[in-house]
Specification:
Number of helices of chain A: 14
Radius of gyration of chain A: 32 Å
Largest interface: A-B, 62 and 62 residues
Organism (chain A): Pichia kluyveri
Family (chain A): Belongs to the glycosyltransferase 34 family.
Oligomer: heterodimer
InterPro entries (chain A): Glyco_trans_34, Nucleotide-diphossugar_trans
CATH class of the largest domain in chain B: Alpha Beta
GO molecular function (chain A): glycosyltransferase activity
Radius of gyration of chain B: 43 Å
Strand content of chain B: 5-15%
Order of helices and strands of chain A: HHHHEHEHEEHHEEHHHHEHEEH
Keywords (chain A): Glycosyltransferase, Membrane, Transferase, Transmembrane, Transmembrane helix
Shape of chain A: elongated
Structural class of chain B: alpha/beta
Shape of chain B: elongated
Chain lengths: 360, 480
Amino acid sequence: MERKNVTSQSINDLLEASSNLEKNIDDDDHFRPKDKKTFTLKHKLIPNQLLRLKTNHYIGKIVLATLSLLFFIWLIFNGYRFTRSSSPKIVMVLAVNNGGGVERWKTPEEWSLERTSIANKKDYAERHGYALTLKDTTLKRRYSHEWREGWERVDILRQTMREYPDAEWFWWLDQNTFIMEPEIDLNSYLLRNIDKKAYRTINYFNPQDITAEAPYVDTTTSPINMIITQDCNGFNLNSFLIRKSEWSELLLDAWWDPVLYEQMHMVWERREASCLEVLYSHQPWIRESMAFVPIKAINSLTKGNCWDQKDDKTLFYNKNDRDFLVNLDGCNNGDRSCWNEFEYYKKLRNELHKAWYKFW
Amino acid sequence: MESNPDLLYRKKRKSFNGLDSLYSKTIQKFKLNVQKYFGIDLDSNYNYNSKFNLPVIITDYLPIVILLLILNYLINGNIIPKPFTTSIGNHSPPENFFKFTQSKFLGSYNLHGLTSKSTSFIPVTDKYIFPRVQDINTLKELSYEDFFDVETYGNPKNPKSFYKYSLDFYEDIDEDEEIINIDKDQNEKAVKNSEIKPKYSLSQQNAMKSFKQTGRKIYKGNENPEIILVTSINFENLNPSYIVKIIQNRVDYAHTNNYGVYSRWNQEFLPMFQKTRNSLDSWSRIIAIREAMIAFPKAKWFWYIDETSFIMNNQININNYILKKESLEPIILKDQSILQPDGFIKTYSDVKFEDISIILTQNENGISVDNFIIKNNLYGKAILNLVLDPLMKTYPKFKKDVSTTLSHILQWHPILLSKTVIIPPRTINARVNNNADIDIKYAYQNDDFVISFANCKLLANCEKQLTPYWEKTQLKNKDD
């Protein structure tokens, strides 16, 4: 069999040579030693390195296999980074810039923990493909009467619902919250089959002594449109969810009424939360669509809150329970320090999520 | 030849010996490396008797291990590296929060009305639910203390007493048990029968019983009327014959057009409004509609037609007359001020028929609550309950007239305003014009659908005003 030099051959000759090659694949002569200067077609088509692998260095294959295995393992744990939905069903509404430095300069610590809080939510939103929107809660003149600034969140929610017309659930988060378990998917953890998970009555825990049974309430047919938690003082609105619906539009509209406010603004210590309690107790259509979950599910308190109930284990964050979110509300009261508490929970979060195979 | 990779490969392929040799070669190479780097000869028979082999390894390697542990302590703060101290199972975050939930509080519960329990409804198949008219005179004999329980507040010298619903409003209290207990002691029973007169006569007892039972009646028939005419009636300041005529008027109309009727005594709602001193006649109408929504849950529209209004033409079907897209859209008053004549807040101009949940008319001052229509949906229920909010009831400006509350809510809640339309007054709320002093757009003219004697209660001449119109309709019915 005559061997052809292909360095200066045309493509037609190349094709002919390849067909010859197929014919003679089992021929012994094919493997005869070659002149160093002669390039065969085989050498042209397959890189030298690969040839060498095939022949003697199967260690290379093991390395390749290990690398690809590692890659797939990485893909399993980090695949969420590639699964983005264009229109997220869950929108996280994070209230930032509390006060906005209107009354005094913001300290470097405040700037820093604002960044920490945002990064925490951003990481969570990216991991699960939710949308995150930051809402500025600077002190504004139109909310300046007495306790009226609490109702700002009502306006923010309404505006966010217009901003995300395709989203279904809106998760309100105050700045002083910290997600401790970012792996938890809110959909499977809470929202899927919510009817079976949430309380439709206030009987389970009723610190404000709201009448448990009211006329005209029918929870068998009305869907759950709002999920909130209760602490020792009553409704807690640091972390709650509301579904975009006719009902929620109407609730956000009814939440502020001058006649109610005029009579009660000196009484309502917790502003819009107190107002919601009143609406809940008087308005059957609001009661029908509201549901409660245990506070540890989405809104665990820290020891600084609810001092009188400090032994009640159902309220407070516990790292052994691996609670989802810790609520640092009131972390600047008294001798508490938001900075210290944020740092503590940040460290704790990292400690809890240290991979078991890592030495440091 | 040996060094040529191609040929070597070829040979390996030909026989298994080649593979074997490769294997043994690898093993040998491994053993050599072990000997070279670790100083252990794997081929030589291990000498188990040697006393010095193991200690030598320990003395050689222990310092290195200790050094590593110290280094780990310095860097991580733990002496023993983390992989050896933690288990994998500890590290999964929770998938649910069931361990915090008390399952006995889960689940839904059913609805009930103001004075009913979900178990104590009285199902009726008659689509005309109204109180017993023949009881009016008996009811007038009784006092409120006979209907309600009395709760006393304040200091003993100057107590304030308020009425509240007694237990037999919510369900029938079985008196048989008491009777059986008395039966045990025959003598005692005999004494009681002879000496003690019952507190109430039989007709009074029946009247009280039916007074308390109306609120528990719910419609369970098969006809499921789409439109319900709701009227709340004050039996104290109206003549019984007038009330009979009014109720008969509703029933006749509903019968002709296959609608339902729901009527209640205003006095039934006294405990709701007594403490806050709201006008009973004005405020009762709102709660009567809300109760009607419990009694007729499948109805689409509730037309509140008050006790001083009278339907003049049974042949006008309100469904075709107002509650149809083609008939309603042309008559909507767009951009109409809520407060007349020139209120700042106006109704929307682009309300779609599907969104309309509240249909109102106006008089000279603004919203009129004599005749209006509410849809049985979220918005309809919400506006009724917002009006009935205890904080609305306590607001001084609203106490006298519920229409002020209604117009306040419409002006401050744009979502509800966007579901509201105002239609010309003469459609369902034409007022009688005895002295010819009313603007013609509000005044009743011949062949209008409804006539309203709005001020007749103040003048205490409702029946007198009604009589000519009632006779007119009677003649008409005879002609038909």
